[in-house]
Task: structure prediction
Amino acid sequence: MKIKVTRKRLAIVILLIIVLPILYNKTSGIITGVMIQKFMKMPKEVVVDNPTTIDSNINAVSTGRVEAKYSVDLTARVSGFLQKKYFNEGDFVKKGQLLFQIDPQEYQLEVKNSQATVNQYNALLLNSQQELNRANALIQEDLVSHSYVDQSLATRNQNQALLDAARQKLQLAKVNLGYTSIKSPIDGRIGKVQITEGNYVTLNSGVLANVSSIDPVYVSFSLRSSDFVKLLKASDKFKGVQVKVQFEGGNWYDKYGVIDFVDNQIDKASGAIQMRATFENPKGWLVPGDYMKVTLIAPEKVNFMTVPQACTKGDAMSGYYVWVIDKDNTVKRKDIKVSDEIDNNWIVESGLNKDDKVVVAGVQNITAEGQKVKILTAEEYAKKRKSDDAR
Result:
């Protein structure tokens, strides 16, 4: 059967071919738009929870540096050739241990000469004292003049002064002789030798070596003024505050430190205050110059209100806020003041009540205050997200 195609029918077919896709696109776009608008008007799904209250010790974290309690630079106090050293670099040395020997010969001779001078003036004093005694006896019999007695007294006093000066010179000579033996003033570890044997040293030669004590040691650090005030309030002038230090690898030192110094003012430039703790260091694990992570823990527990960090908006400069849900399931913004963090939670100092329903999941779905939301349990929310991800 043949179909007779007229011009009119052909025009109708062409028109339909052109118009139908346009009508389809417009119709599907309208339907899709309506569905999207309907979806957008649906309440967003969120999970809410009350702020958590916990009892915890106030703590603060800083970076500290290990310092020797005593650090002594060994220098020459008399001139001479450095004859010998009696230690190995890096050794532990005891207080009073001989470390360096400066050639003592010159100073031994000085001691002997000074001793001879003392003996000489001692003999002169003895003789002049005898002369004075005789003069005093003769003046009683009027056999000598008073001027002779005065002269004898002056001679005796002069010899006494010369003897005193000679004794002081002898004492100085002995001191200088003692300085030729350089001994350790403290127990500690001795460092690298800066001037080796055979060199001529003087008072201006500089450091021969350094000895630093190792037990106990100091750890110096600084605290922000806010942390300082918190710890001060949670302790009796830092009594009982535990100080822990952590090595770079993450291991904790096995002994606690005791705060023994708190500066009397806050540094204007950094806004922090300098502090120091003393640590026992019998094994020498804390090495002067090393940097450590320092944690301070107050002795008394304090009640804190916390919220998860993930549910907060804003930053430390502009401030933080959270979304809370009113009775009619509408969203409301609440600005909060936070201080520290505990286990990925912010400590909330103000801005929230313990009965507030804080949005803890689905925060990304909230765009403005007054928005309606649908509250799910944490299990329902997790299940729905898993289902959405599977699509």
About this structure: The first helix runs from residue 7 to 41. The mean pLDDT is 84. The chain has four domains: 1-35, 44-55+304-390, 60-69+213-301, 77-211.
